[in-house]
Amino acid sequence: xxxxxxxxxxxxxxxxxxxxxxxxxxxxxxxxxxxxxxxxxxxxxxxxxxxxxxxxxxxxxxxxxxxxxxxxxxxxxxxxxxxxxxxxxxxxxxxxxxxxxxxxxxxxxxxxxxxxxxxxxxxxxxxxxxxxxxxxxxxxxxxxxxxxxxxxxxxxxxxxxxxxxxxxxxxxxxxxxxxxxxxxxxxxxxxxxxxxxxxxxxxxxxxxxxxxxxxxxxxxxxxxxxxxxxxxxxxxxxxxxxxxxxxxxxxxxxxxxxxxxxxxxxxxxxxxxxxxxxxxxxxxxxxxxxxx
Length: 292
Description:
Blueprint: H1 10-31, H2 38-62, E1 89-91, E2 102-105, E3 111-113, E4 124-126, E5 136-139, E6 150-157, E7 170-174, E8 181-185, E9 191-195, E10 225-232, E11 240-245, E12 252-257, E13 271-274
Antiparallel strand pairs: 1-2, 2-5, 3-4, 5-13, 6-10, 7-8, 7-13, 8-9, 10-11, 11-12
């Protein structure tokens, strides 16, 4: 792909970027290396390929037959890597892409940024530090998000100090109406999770400074934090869990909380939104946005 890049059009280059990002992510997972770009990984592979082929061959010899799965593996419902660098849409790589192939950026903000999280990629989205009607929207209800007994939401956030927190916290992601889910970032650096209720009303809130916000200063770049929120309504205890990590530290459990919310119900918002409340609710809460 790298050799052919100069000969193909912009659409093909975007596809190359998506595929290249996935290749990099999987090689990082398998190798345990932490090189942030595909170019650096290519250099590493050129030097280490023969040795790694030997390691791979030994792993195959010692690998036991895989057990027959008792249930279907988890389904990736929605994923966007924000790799497009420009434009007004971002590609959905999840199973819901059949009906919702992309999500749309609101006008003016968020802006495309070349400050990227450690896994690498071409770009990220910058919502700025001021609240406003800024969001990334999927226009329509994603049926796979209805009646979820369990789910996991992951992402990277580089929080910037905001003059004022939005009402109820700065939304990271939401598909909440009467039912559904929302995850917010609070001014004190905590994360709060709402299942079938607004996050601000939920007891599922981490300690302060697990995702600290810093001033928008060039010297404070790479404040990226990885987060993973998991929910399992069928678990006997600790139904809500939150993990946080960064480039140098693996994600660790920072919150485990009981919940009696049950499945994240059927009466969800008519769309999934990153950076704000869902579109239909937005005129009532114009400053409820995430500074990331």
